[in-house]
Amino acid sequence: MATTGDDRTDTAGRKAPLERAERDLVALGILVAAIFLFVGTGSTVMTGIVRSWIYGVGSPDVLLTNALILNVALLLFGWRRYAELQREIAERRKAEETATRLAQTDALTGCLNRRSLDEAIARLVGEAAASGEAVAVMMIDLDKFKRSNDLLGHKAGDAVLVETARRIEGLIPARGVVARLGGDEFICAAIFAPGSENAIERLAVRINDGLAKPIICGGLRAEVTASIGVSLGFGSAGQTPVQVAQDLLHRADLAMYQAKRRGRNRFAWFEPSMESELRFRGELEAGIREGLKRGEFVPYYEKQIDLETGEITGFEMLARWISSRHGVVSPDVFIPVAEEIGLIAELSEALITLALEDAKAWDPGLTLSVNISPLQLRDPWFAQRLLKMLVAANFPPTRLEIEITETCLHENIAVVRSLITSLKNQGIRISLDDFGTGYSSLAQLRTLPFDRIKIDRSFVSSLARSADSASIVEAISSLGRGMALPITAEGVESAEVLSALRRFGQFKGQGYLYGQPASAEDVKRDLAARGLLIASAAPAGTPDSPAARSA
Ligand code: C2E
Ligand code: CA
Ligand code: CA
Q1: Does residue 357 sit in the same domain as residue 236?
Q2: What pLDDT is stored for residue 70 in this prediction?
Q3: Which of 187, 233, 346, 415 has the greatest number of CB atoms lying within 10 Å of its CB?
Q4: Coil/strand/helix, residue 219
């Protein structure tokens, strides 16, 4: 921006308006005063000068003549300064306009940017309120844009964003705006007549379809789709248009996440339940952080049984959150959240430490199984940390089994393979959990050195009543036999399931038939009663041998 040395400027480099007005006024004042002076002195002095030159009568007053010359100089100076100022002002105005445009638009796509968005939507809200209409806001987020960006390069990524903006702009109605929020997020908002929900949905579908068409740039073909969240609102009596705009944006954002969850490349309307979901989610996150500090996460244990002999062979540790606020919370609720907020490793390691201490008191013949999140397997130091925990607890690695799910196998098979190998070298055993629910192929089963597969409980618990489940369990058990992989059946809920299972071969099993997962204290009591607690840990008055292992 053009500024002169004596100008005071604010932090954004803009000239203080009062000062500018003052300067304009001074320049104008000088000019006007010069004109008055010229008119006042000019007439007398000029007559004297003319008379002395033409008629040779008298001589002009020297003082007045000098004053007149000075006055002319002043006039010229004033005029030049005034003209200069006019030019300066015009330049500054142009620079300000450019700066405003740059501040309000996104440099890459030329759409509005985040800064100017609230105000632009607020303007639409005000306009719509005046005419009894409504404003629809769409939050448009490209799906897996990062992947195509990594794959095709940033230049192609930029071209995709520019083309996306152009396509959205080509589709929105006349009274609408398009903005890019940064990254691959776009917003469009437009005024609609009341009862236009169908038209809004048609627009969302057109945007989905339009963005899904391949984009060709520099010989490369990029294919992206978008998830769209839609909110619709009217001006409200208690809120300013800016507040309404912010609400609409927030709601469209929540709806967009719903569209992602429902499978991407689609749109979703905002629903009020999304707000309470979000609040619950926020409470959950805060609760997990706090609960971790307060030691509210504890291991529960589920018996694992040799179905042939009926003996207990070990326990699977299952996390429980004994929350002061929510009661006993299932891992299906808090594990995914802990994974998302980056606390899964800390949480899991705290639980494993507790479990190793508990299991040390059990009969040395009993194993301990722990579930490991796919995220933990991405950590190259995981194996080392696990071994350190085993050493610290003085727990033999051969008694530990870790359970990983098939989803791990899609992440980075090479990393998982080297991790599994180093754990196995230490004597730790590895089970493939929830088998049958994912996509692991026979080839993967063969290349990864698993020690056991666990048939998912969904097949086992329905075994007695579903022919499909029965054939899946049969197929998995013959696969296990063929590959010499022992099998555990999860979800053994009834005696019928147990006898159906027995027909297919030899299994280990676990499930509600043998009891619900129990706390460390309950397990200790149970094991003590069976004589399966090491002598030093057995509560007084309980038999410590001979063992009555049978469940
Ligand atoms: P999972 O590894 O498949 O664990 C078995 C789940 O089935 C447990 O649910 C258990 O309570 C339940 N279950 C046991 N027997 C029966 C039965 O007969 N019928 C039925 N319908 N269900 C039965 P839970 O404890 O809610 O655990 C759910 C999942 O949470 C686990 O599934 C596991 O994947 C995960 N999880 C639990 N603890 C941890 C942990 O410490 N770390 C990680 N990463 N995941 C964990
Ligand atoms: Ca498991
Ligand atoms: Ca399982």
Answers
A1: no
A2: 83
A3: 187
A4: coil
Its domain, for residue 315, covers 295-545
Q: Ligand 1 centre from 318 Cα, in Å?
A: 6
Q: What angle do the packed helices 17-54 and 62-104 form, to 10 degrees?
A: 150
Long-range contacts: 64-67, Cβ < 8 Å, 24+? Answer: 67/37, 67/41
Over the stretch 272-328, which tens digit does the pLDDT of each residue have?
999 998 888 899 999 999 999 999 999 999 999 999 999 999 999 999 999 988 899
- Can you tell me the distance from the alpha carbon of 527 to that of 544, in angstroms, rounded to the nearest whole number? 9
Q: Are residues 265 and 200 in the same domain?
A: yes
Helix (H, G, I), strand (E, B) or coil at 136: strand
pLDDT of residue 15: 46
Residue 58 has pLDDT above 80, yes or no: no
29 and 155, same structural domain?
A: no
For the stretch 164-183, pLDDT in tens is: 999 999 999 999 999 999 89
In the chain, how many H helices and how many E strands? 19, 17
pLDDT digits (tens, 9 = 90+) for 506-548: 999 999 999 999 999 999 999 999 999 998 876 665 554 444 5
Residue nearest to atom 41 of ligand 1 (CA): 319
Boundary (domain end) residue, out of 60, 83, 104: 104
Residues 308 and 451 in one domain: yes
Q: Are residues 88 and 182 in the same domain?
A: no
CATH number for the domain spanning 315: value is 3.20.20.450
Q: Same domain, yes or no, for 134 and 190?
A: yes
Reported as a pLDDT band with limits 50, 70 and 90, residue 403 is very high
The length of the chain in residues reads 551
Q: Which of 301, 457, 512 to mutate to test the pocket of ligand 1 (most atoms within 8 A of CB)?
A: 457
- Over residues 318-366, the pLDDT tens digits come to 999 999 888 999 999 999 999 999 999 999 999 999 999 999 999 999 9
In a domain, 518, yes or no: yes
Residue 1 belongs to some domain of the structure: no
Q: Flag whether 195 is in a domain.
A: yes
Q: What is the pTM of this model?
A: 0.67
Do residues 423 and 318 both lie within one domain?
A: yes
Residue 95 has pLDDT above 70, yes or no: yes
Spatial separation of the C-alpha atoms in residues 157 and 262, rounded to whole Å: 25
Residue 422 lies in a domain: yes
- In the reported structure, the alpha carbon of residue 175 is separated from the centroid of ligand 2 by a whole-number distance in angstroms of 55
How many structural domains are present in the chain?
Answer: 3
- For residues 374, 376, 381, 382, the Cα torsion angle rounded to the nearest 10 degrees is -90
Starting from the CA of residue 369, give the closest ligand.
Answer: 2
Q: Which residue puts its alpha carbon closest to atom 8 of ligand 1?
A: 318
| Same domain (yes/no): 397, 344 | yes
Q: Which of 297, 318, 463 to mutate to test the pocket of ligand 1 (most atoms within 8 A of CB)?
A: 318
Residue 2 has pLDDT above 50, yes or no: no
